[in-house]
Design brief:
single chain; alpha+beta; five-stranded antiparallel β-sheet; four-stranded antiparallel β-sheet; 3 helices; 9 strands
């Protein structure tokens, strides 16, 4: 089973790495800093993963309603040239008007492999360059930088999209504006499935080794900077109301994929950042 981590219960974390002795000396190194921050991110991941399913439901991400209503470009090669050509005209455009009324399955998303990709180290307590108000307490060494992680769906789960309306249309041109017309060549509904969705993200962070207190180190700030989601393997089962044609499912899935990704990425990113914010400082603030 794959995993992505976003959770809210601090009682679930177990810090697996203590700050190296060198990190507590005057020489605060990037090598020691990477070990410290990777330990914090590793401990944070199961917390995030445990919290995400219920959070996705509470925030209206699963199911996500009223996802998209509008056109999806297809291109004249999917029968448009033949339809217009049979009327001594040329195909000017071909598209599908769709209503993606809901998406299910985003609560099954999990996170894994959260790790440092770039880090800067400094002695003492430094201001976080990504958020000046972020504070983890008093540090012997401060760390800031970038990290990365991956997302996946729990085994045997899938993302599904319900298309309550599909109307495939073609615009023909007989040689001037007065001789243009639009025909509906297909009408129906569909259910589309993504069996192997995946994703990756980059994040910014600020952390430090504690100068005092019960925690050896703390993560004071973390936020997703960029989120990239792929719905590879999207397939659609169509139910025609008018003029059933075999190619609709074949051409609709890849054309629909990018539209769905654009609609679901921003709210998922916002939800992840809300979840991260609720956990910080993690596991707790430095100090008595």
């Amino acid at each position: 089973m794959k995993k992505i981590a976003l959770c809210m219960g601090l009682a679930l974390w177990t810090l697996t790495v203590s700050p190296p002795a060198a990190a507590q000396s005057a020489a605060c190194t990037t090598t020691d800093g990477s070990k410290v921050v990777n330990g914090l991110l590793s401990s944070l991941t199961p917390v995030l993963n445990k919290t995400w399913p219920s959070l996705a439901v509470d925030l209206g991400l699963d199911p996500m309603k009223d996802v998209y209503e509008g056109p999806i470009k297809l291109g004249c090669k999917y029968g448009g040239h033949e339809i217009c050509g049979a009327q001594a005209a040329s195909c000017e455009d071909m598209w599908a008007d769709v209503d993606v009324s809901s998406i299910n399955g985003l609560a099954y998303m999990q996170f894994e492999d959260l790790a440092v990709t770039k880090l800067q180290a400094a002695s003492g307590t430094q201001v976080c360059p990504f958020n000046s108000k972020a504070s983890g307490g008093s540090y012997s060494c401060s760390y800031s930088g970038m990290g990365a992680g991956n997302a996946y769906l729990i085994d045997n789960s899938q993302i599904s999209a319900t298309l309550s309306k599909i109307k495939v249309k073609v615009k023909c041109n007989l040689g001037g504006f007065a001789y243009k017309w639009t025909e509906t060549v297909y009408s129906g509904k569909a259910k589309c499935y993504g069996n192997k969705p995946s994703g990756n993200a980059t994040l910014n962070f600020c952390a430090g080794t504690c100068a005092s207190g019960s925690a050896p180190a703390t993560l004071a700030y973390s936020a997703v900077d960029k989120l990239n989601i792929q719905l590879s393997g999207l397939s659609c089962d169509v139910s025609p109301d008018y003029n059933p044609v075999s190619w609709v499912a074949e051409v609709l899935a890849p054309a629909l994929e990018s539209t769905i990704v654009k609609k679901i990425t921003p709210p998922i990113k916002d939800a992840l950042n809300d979840l991260l914010k609720d956990q910080l400082p993690f596991p707790t603030k430095c100090g008595p």
